[in-house]
Design goal:
- By secondary structure, this protein is of the alpha/beta class.
- The protein folds into 3 domains: 135 residues, Rossmann fold; 203 residues, no CATH class; 101 residues, no CATH class.
- 43% of the residues lie in helices and 18% in strands.
- The strands form 2 sheets. An 8-stranded mixed sheet has the order 7-6-8-9-10-11-13-12. It has a 5-stranded parallel sheet with strand order 2-3-4-1-5, sandwiched between helices.
- A hairpin with a 2-residue loop joins strand 8 and strand 9.
- The longest helix has 22 residues.
- The protein starts with 5 loop residues before the first helix and ends with a helix.
- 40% of the residues are buried.
- This is ATPase AAA.
- InterPro entries: AAA+_ATPase (IPR003593), AAA_14 (IPR041682), DUF4143 (IPR025420), P-loop_NTPase (IPR027417).
C-alpha cells in the first residue's frame, strides 16, 4: 500500500470543529479514490457513491431535501445514522446538482464527513454552475513524491531519516540511488505500485501509454466541439515535448496556432491539473507578484510521463548527475514537481525570477516566499561561484539566503557577487526538494546562531 502524505492533511480536516465539505481536486489517475478509501479506516461508517452510476446519482435526482437525501443513502447502504460517517461522493461532476447540495450538508448536516472528488471536476469551474462558495473547502492531490516513493519501498526506516535535519551523511549515497530510480519511474501511483511490485522498467512502459491515452480520451468530456477536442489532443502531446521550457502562446511548439487558441487550451489543461504555467517574478523583495505579461515556463503533471514521452528514460540509467540529462531541463522539472508535492492548497503555485534587460539577462530556476523574503532556488551542479544569475538576484535582494539543489552533500558556503556583496548559499541534494521549507528553517536558525557567536 502506498503511503500518501495527504493522509495527514485529511486527518487534520477531520479534526476541525468548523469542518466544511471537502472538494478533493487532482488530475485523472493521481489516486484520489485510493486515498479516501484509506482514510475510511478511521470511520465506523463509510459510504461510497460514484455518480457515474445511475443508481448513485439517482439519490440526488429524487431528493432535493438534504435530510431526505441522507436518510435514503443510509437506508440503501444499511447504515445507522448514529455512527461517525464518511460520505465520499466520487465523479461528482457527472451530476452537477450534487455539487450544489454540498452547501446543505454544511448548513444542515455538519456531523457527516463529506468529501467530493472527480477527475474532470475542474472543467466546471467556469460553467454556469453555482459552486457553494464559503461552504466548501479544497485540497489538491498531486503525484507521489520521492519521500512517498522511498517509504513505499522501505517503510521501516525512511521516516526517521527525513525527520533528522540535516539528514545524516551516511544516508546520502543510498538516497541518491533511490532518487535516480524515482526519476526513472515518476510519481503516477499506478506506475509506482507496479514498479515496486515487479522491479521491472519494461513492464511499466504500457502504463505510461495508457495514462497518456486516458488524458487524450478525456478531452471529449470538456471540449466544446470536435475542433476544440482536436486542439486539446494536439496540445497535450506537445506539452510533454515542451515541458520545462519557457513558451510563447503564438505558434506554440512549432505549430501554426494563434495566441488565443493556445492560451485558452493550455489554461483548460491547467484547470484539469495536467499542466502548470509557471510565471516569473521580476523583483527580489516583497510583494511577491508574478508577471503574467512575461513568457511562462511549462510544467506537466509528472516528470516520469515527460521522460517517457521524450524517450530519455534510458539516458537516466547509470548517470552520475541528473543535471547532465536533457540540458538540465529534466532535473529542474523534477525539482519543481518535488517543490509542489507537499503543497495541498489549491492556490499553491511555482514561480521563477527573470531580469530581461538588453544589458543584463538573468534567470533563476525557482523562487519562493519564506517569511516575507523572496528566496532564490537554483537547480545546478558546479562551483558555487559560477552561478551568475543567482549572483545577480542576490545583488538586489535585501537578505543573504539562497538555495541550490545539486548532486552533492549538504553544505553552506560564503559567496560573493561581482560587486563583493556577500551572501550564504545552502546547497542541498536534489532529493531534499520536497523538504525545502524545513531546510530553510534550519538554514535561518544556523545563520542566526553564527551571528550570535560572533
Amino acid at each position: 500500500m502506498l503511503f500518501r502524505s495527504i493522509q495527514n492533511e485529511l486527518l487534520r480536516w477531520c479534526e476541525k470543529t468548523n469542518r466544511k465539505p471537502l472538494v478533493l481536486r487532482g488530475a485523472r489517475q493521481v489516486g484520489k479514490t485510493t486515498v479516501i478509501n484509506q482514510l475510511a479506516s478511521h470511520f465506523k461508517n463509510y459510504i461510497y457513491l460514484n455518480l457515474e452510476k445511475e443508481s448513485d446519482s439517482g439519490f440526488f435526482e429524487n431528493h432535493s431535501n438534504v435530510n431526505e437525501l441522507v436518510s435514503a443513502i443510509y437506508f440503501a447502504h444499511g447504515k445507522s445514522q448514529d455512527n461517525k460517517t464518511l460520505l465520499f461522493i466520487d465523479e461528482i461532476q457527472e451530476y452537477p446538482k450534487a455539487i450544489n447540495m454540498l452547501r446543505y450538508f454544511y448548513e444542515e448536516r455538519p456531523e457527516i464527513y463529506v468529501i467530493a472528488a472527480g477527475s474532470m471536476l475542474e472543467t466546471l469551474f467556469e460553467s454556469d454552475l453555482s459552486f457553494p462558495v464559503g461552504r466548501v473547502e479544497y485540497m489538491v492531490l498531486r503525484p507521489i513524491s520521492f519521500y512517498e516513493f522511498v517509504k513505499a519501498k522501505a517503510p521501516a526506516n525512511r521516516e526517521d531519516i527525513f525527520k533528522t535535519i540535516p539528514i545524516p551523511k551516511y544516508a546520502i549515497e543510498t538516497l541518491f540511488k533511490e532518487f535516480h530510480e524515482y526519476a526513472l519511474v515518476g510519481g503516477m501511483p499506478e506506475i509506482v505500485s507496479q514498479y515496486i511490485k515487479e522491479q521491472d522498467l519494461v513492464k511499466i512502459q504500457p502504463i505510461y501509454d495508457s495514462l497518456i491515452n486516458g488524458y487524450l480520451d478525456d478531452v471529449e468530456k470538456y471540449a466544446k466541439d470536435k475542433k476544440s477536442a482536436t486542439l486539446y489532443r494536439l496540445l497535450i502531446r506537445q506539452a510533454f515535448l515542451e515541458a520545462g521550457n519557457r513558451i510563447t502562446f503564438q505558434n506554440f511548439g512549432n505549430t501554426k496556432l494563434d495566441y488565443r487558441q493556445v492560451s485558452e487550451t493550455l489554461r483548460g489543461l491547467e484547470k484539469a491539473l495536467l499542466i502548470n504555467l509557471i510565471y516569473p517574478v521580476t523583483n527580489t523583495e516583497i510583494p511577491f507578484q508574478p508577471n503574467h505579461k512575461r513568457s511562462p515556463k511549462l510544467q506537466v503533471i509528472d516528470t516520469g510521463l515527460m521522460a517517457h514521452q521524450l524517450g530519455i528514460q534510458q539516458n537516466i540509467l547509470g548517470i552520475n548527475d541528473l543535471n547532465s540529462i536533457y540540458k538540465g531541463i529534466f532535473i529542474e522539472h523534477l525539482v519543481g514537481q518535488e517543490l509542489l508535492s507537499g503543497q495541498f492548497n489549491a492556490l499553491s503555485a511555482l514561480n521563477f525570477w527573470v531580469r530581461e534587460k538588453k544589458t543584463s539577462m538573468a534567470e533563476v530556476d525557482y523562487v519562493l516566499n519564506f517569511k516575507g523574503k523572496i528566496i532564490p532556488i537554483e537547480v545546478k551542479s558546479g562551483a558555487a561561484g559560477k552561478l551568475r544569475s543567482l549572483h545577480q538576484f542576490m545583488e538586489e535582494a535585501p537578505h543573504e539566503m539562497a538555495i541550490r539543489f545539486y548532486a552533492g552533500e549538504i553544505r553552506i558556503d560564503n559567496v560573493k557577487t561581482s560587486s563583493d556583496k556577500e551572501y550564504k548559499l545552502l546547497s542541498l541534494p536534489y532529493f531534499l526538494a520536497f523538504q525545502v521549507r524545513e531546510y530553510l528553517e534550519w538554514f535561518e536558525t544556523t545563520l542566526n546562531q553564527e551571528t550570535q557567536n560572533i
